[in-house]
Specification:
The structure is a single chain. This protein is an all-alpha fold. It has six helices and no strands. Helices cover 86% and strands 0% of the residues. α1 runs parallel beside α6 and α2 packs parallel to α4. 29% of the residues are buried.
């Protein structure tokens, strides 16, 4: 009975982290683009700003695995949240191309830090509780993350099509 309770708690934790890290972050892309447009950034420059997120992802992926092994997966997930929150703070405080680009760079680093760390953390929890993660379960986790990314991306894209009269 204990095994089912632990399995349930780990599953709820995984789904919660997936909702926070994956669904939220995927849908934010369209919201950010609306925010930039509302602050006077032309559409062509929005694409330039968004490219800094990809650069941040590349920079964040390099140390993510090393840090997760060195200081712990949960600490890296927390660090990722702090980096993403910092990018939001920059968006709130500063309203120009340079700071929007910096915010996207930090946002990308934060995304990369939690990218593979979430599944690694969940797998660690399963192993600590002597639950053997099988390939079917791991496949379902990856499918869940991918579907959540797809749904969040569609939400973000849908938000981007809203006219500038929307309250942002």
């Amino acid at each position: 009975m204990k095994s089912k309770s632990v399995n349930f708690k780990i599953a709820v934790l995984f789904l919660t982290f997936t909702a926070v890290f994956t669904l939220f972050r995927s849908s934010m892309s369209g919201i950010f683009s609306l925010f930039y447009a509302k602050n006077g950034i032309p559409n062509a420059n929005i694409s330039s700003i968004k490219s800094f997120q990809n650069i941040g992802i590349m920079l964040g992926l390099l140390p993510a695995g090393y840090l997760a092994d060195r200081i712990g997966r949960l600490k890296v997930l927390s660090l990722s949240s702090i980096v993403i929150a910092s990018s939001f703070l920059i968006l709130i405080l500063f309203r120009n191309f340079l700071f929007f680009s910096l915010a996207e760079l930090l946002y990308g680093i934060g995304l990369a830090l939690n990218s593979g760390t979430l599944i690694a953390y969940i797998t660690d929890l399963q192993e600590q509780n002597k639950l053997s993660p099988n390939s079917k379960l791991m496949g379902m986790q990856v499918i869940t993350l991918n579907l959540t990314t797809l749904i969040g991306g569609n939400i973000g894209t849908g938000l981007f099509t809203i006219t500038d009269t929307a309250p942002v």
